[in-house]
Amino acid sequence: MICLGIESTAHTFGVGIVTDKKKVLANVRDSYTTKTGGIIPSKAADHHVEVFDKVVRQALEDAKVGWDDIDFIAFSQGPGLGHTLRFGGIVSRTLALLKKKPLVGVNHCIAHLEIGRMLTKAKDPVLLYASGANTQIIAYDGGKYRIFGETLDGGIGNFLDTFARELGLGFPGGPKVMALAKKGKNYIELPYVIKGMDTSFGGILTNVKQKLKSGKYKKEDLAFSLQETVFAMLVEASERAMAHCEKDELLLGGGVACNTRLQEMCAIMCKERNAKSYVLANEFNVDNAAMIAWLGIEMYKAGIRTLLEKAIIRPYERTDDVLVKWRNN
Ligand code: ATP
Ligand code: FE2
């Protein structure tokens, strides 16, 4: 069985082709970037219009398959930006209609977790999902993926991007902040904001902006301290969720999971509590369509189909809105 997946929740337009034997035949993506600002939703959608044809063709070429080999199409139904999701939805419905393929709408956040279960030995992990727009701690419990902790304001990636923008480093800022942080040596104390398993970054951002403006601190020391502080918050919340759910696997997902310091901190925490920490290759951390195709396969095998007339986008869909029919434990 072969599924073609389409991702369009935010700045990335992607097409992935995956088999039910867990083979990723193609994982092509093209992302909207800017030199100075963040994401302007309508501009990101314009970008997807420009590249979709090229990305679809490239994926089929990489996978060395034709439309006859594709059994069905899966697409990101939500959550995400309305502008970009709507375009991805149009592409998916049109292809389903033209090529006469069944359609499966999937939840993007759950796809991050399911691709981790596919690619690693993790069976029932707690997911630390740290991306641009999302920061959530997700685990399976009672037939659903539940959110045990999350950011009370913006996502950690957007927070790092905003800090990078203050420094004129461009978008996406996460990798630039990581490089700068490696040069930092002195820890500067910043607010540490964690409430139960929830986190918040707005106050820290204000504080670090003030420190930047004051001219008293080195940029690299601030980048280093910022990473140490916010990553410690995420690791603390993840550990609490693992203890609460009695799970002994942690999976990192989302674009910020590419950060090697965050990976290292998660590994240390897991080692200390005799648990396992799993990290994916970067192409599966960032938004990608292979994960959409894979979750599509799991859902399709469980008998789930999305009728064309019901294939509307769900920009605000929550992880725990989805009934998980494809897991039996
Ligand atoms: P989602 O729709 O899941 O919220 P997204 O649109 O934010 O995802 P992702 O590709 O998951 O997209 O994540 C992008 C974020 O990851 C950006 O904020 C970027 O700065 C951040 N990022 C990428 N690499 C690194 C890194 N090495 N360190 C920290 N952050 C990183
Ligand atoms: Fe994502």
Provide the fold topology:
Blueprint: E1 2-7, E2 12-19, E3 24-31, H1 41-63, E4 72-78, H2 82-99, E5 103-107, H3 108-119, E6 126-130, E7 135-141, E8 144-150, H4 156-166, H5 174-181, E9 194-195, E10 198-199, H6 202-214, H7 219-245, E11 249-253, H8 260-272, E12 276-278, H9 282-285, H10 290-301
Parallel strand pairs: 1-4, 4-5, 6-11, 11-12
Antiparallel strand pairs: 1-2, 2-3, 6-7, 7-8, 9-10
Helix pairs in contact: 1-2, 3-10, 4-6, 5-7, 7-8
Bound molecules: adenosine-5'-triphosphate (ATP) and fe (ii) ion.
Radius of gyration (CA) equals: 20 Å
Class by SSE composition: alpha/beta
Strand segment count: 12
CATH topology of the largest domain: Nucleotidyltransferase, domain 5
The CATH first-level class of the largest domain comes to Alpha Beta
Percent range for β-strand residues = 15-25%
Relevant CATH superfamily of the largest domain: ATPase, nucleotide binding domain
SSE order: EEEHEHEHEEEHHEEHHEHEHH
- The amount of helix comes to 40-55%
Brief characterization of the structure:
The protein is an alpha/beta fold. The protein folds into 2 domains: 156 residues, 2-Layer Sandwich (Nucleotidyltransferase, domain 5), CATH 3.30.420.40; 156 residues, Nucleotidyltransferase, domain 5 (2-Layer Sandwich).
What does it look like?
It is a single chain. With 329 residues, the chain is an alpha/beta fold. It folds into two domains: 2-112 and 284-328, ATPase, nucleotide binding domain (Nucleotidyltransferase, domain 5, 2-Layer Sandwich); 124-279, Nucleotidyltransferase, domain 5. It has helices at 41-63, 82-99, 108-119, 156-166, 174-181, 202-214, 219-245, 260-272, 282-285, 290-301; strands spanning 2-7, 12-19, 24-31, 72-78, 103-107, 126-130, 135-141, 144-150, 194-195, 198-199, 249-253, 276-278. The protein has a five-stranded mixed beta sheet, sandwiched between helices. Strands 8-7-6-11-12 form a five-stranded mixed beta sheet, sandwiched between helices. α1 (41-63) packs parallel to α2 (82-99), α3 packs across α10 and α4 runs parallel beside α6 (202-214). The protein is globular. The mean pLDDT is 96. The structure holds adenosine-5'-triphosphate and fe (ii) ion. Residues 9-11, 80, 108, 131-134, 155, 157-158, 160-161, 172-175, 178, 254-256, 258-259, 286-287 line the site of adenosine-5'-triphosphate.
